[in-house]
Amino acid sequence: MEICYILDASAFINGFKLDSNNNFTVPEITAEIKDFESRLMFDMAIDECKLTIQDVPNKYTNCVNKIISESGDILRLSFPDKKLIALAYMFSKEGRNVKVISDDYTIQNTLKIMGIPYSGIITEGIKGIYNWKKVCEGCKKEYDDDYPFDDCEICGSKIYKKRIKVSK
Ligand SMILES: [Zn+2]
């Protein structure tokens, strides 16, 4: 079965080659492609019918929200990112052969959790699944994600979010 490529803005910005006519993106991504060269490539792909802009029904975006609500990544995904992931989710539910092209680590991490294939152009894709943990920059005490304050209860230093590997 032919692969449907789902393209993030980074696919255009980093020069992904559109060899087939099976390339898709969501309307929200178009606003993120601003520089002249990427825009030219984007417009040409549409003119040559290599790229289809496809909207996604809300129910799929809601499903994505539900699936990733366990992961700290939900906070870091923009609305266009979520739509893009929802498109990949919709296609895979329809039994299509999907691959997302994105250099965004948060998108890649989310796809990994959801079991949807992806590939980067510059990056090779991250190894393993990551999550976020709150850590005090002073005494290094670790806090749960729902700890409501910005400062450490022990030493009063600032708490920052750290990416931690949770599985391979
Ligand atoms: Zn502390």
Automatic annotation (TrEMBL):
Name recorded for this polypeptide: UPF0271 protein
Species this chain originates from: Methanobrevibacter gottschalkii DSM 11977
NCBIfam families, per the entry: PRK12496.1-2 (NF009145)
Keywords: Hydrolase, Metal-binding, Nuclease
Family matches, as Pfam families: PIN_6
One annotated GO biological process: maturation of SSU-rRNA
Lineage, uppermost ranks: Archaea, Methanobacteriati, Methanobacteriota, Methanomada group, Methanobacteria
UniProt key word Transmembrane helix: no
Domain Ribonuclease PIN: 6-90
GO molecular function, one term: metal ion binding
GO CC terms in record: preribosome, small subunit precursor
Coiled coil: none
Top-rank lineage group of the source organism: Archaea
Keyword Metal-binding: yes
